[in-house]
Amino acid sequence: MRFYEYIFLATAFAASVCGCARNVSGDLPQDVIEPQFMNIIPEADGGYSLVSISPFDGSRDTISISQPLGRLIVTSTSYIGFLDAVGADSVIVGVSGGEYVCDSSVTAGLSNGTVVDIGYDASPDYEKIMALKPDLLLTYSVSPVKSQFFSKLESLGIKTFIVNEHLERHPLARAAYIRLFGALTGNMAAADSVLKIVSENYINLRDSVQSNLNRNIELDSKGTTHKQRKILVNIPYKDQWFIPGQESYLTTLFKDAGGEILGAKSGSSVSGQISVETAYSLSKEADLWMNVGWCQTLEQLLSVNPLFDDFLMDIQGNASARGYSNAEGCATNSSDTSASVVWNDNNRLNPKGGNDFWESGVVHPDLLLRDLIGIFRGEDNRTPIYYKSIK
Questions:
Q1: Which domains does the chain have, with CATH numbers?
Q2: Euclidean distance between CA atoms 260 and 58, whole angstroms
Q3: What count of other Cβ atoms lies within 10 Å of the Cβ of residue 356?
Q4: Residue 9 pLDDT > 80, yes or no?
């Protein structure tokens, strides 16, 4: 999603939420959520010192950028989303896992050879990396121990910077990493403009939802009470069912949209494991089932576990009893797929299964929030961008 396209869409979106388009000039909103693991320090020469802070031991890695960089290798698709949002995806010369990229310019580059797939960090092609002569390689960390990949790059003289955006707990804190990519490419003004719109839209939506919940009023045409949705998330992965903690990115996003992830561990930002039996108990409370893994149809979902038919009947029954349904009404029989009680975040997949939710969606949590609010309220007049109903 190009910078100018997003400005148009987000401005129109703000108008639909607030009744008029908000002024996007001036300083960033005061209540923008600052990242925990990144800092940007302006320098006297007009450049920036970029500081990466380890979530594991607090150590800091700092680089100075005195002029825009023109050749970047990126190892996460979210970095592509940020660069696209500031109109700078043309600086990408190398990616990791190119088959999962959604950005059209980068996929075109992979096809014509102007962008190179360097492989994955477990088995990268160091010769390709060296041949690309990058100004900087952007990667991420998953533990306090320096990876073999990172150590090898250092020994080869490849300038590398750790980006810990994926470990930020708040959606707006992740979105704020757009400023890092603005600083790297000389597009800070564009980055600040996008972040301002994203933050204001997100905050307005969040506050409106919470105000409605506090007043216990529904603002749609149904005249029903606006309740907090009770949500079962995920399906088993290799016999392990993960539930995000209460302080996690996903739980925050769902909470701000008016939903509660059932089984989320209090005070934790990491995912915990539950049994299928525990998930079955949670399904008896739930009125929505979200993020159902690889499944694109109810038939696929029900094939995962024989109990899922019972899960679905309970969830549909709860949704019906609480007044949430689509235009056809909420069914109480799982064979009737008219009830929109199962949703997945895979509405924007590329042919190989790459998910734009984790590419452009990270940059635009306001659009994710808009999707979720429409789903949670059972509003049929909103077409989700990143989510789709599973039927």
A1: 3-195 (3.40.50.1980), 216-389 (3.40.50.1980)
A2: 31
A3: 22
A4: no
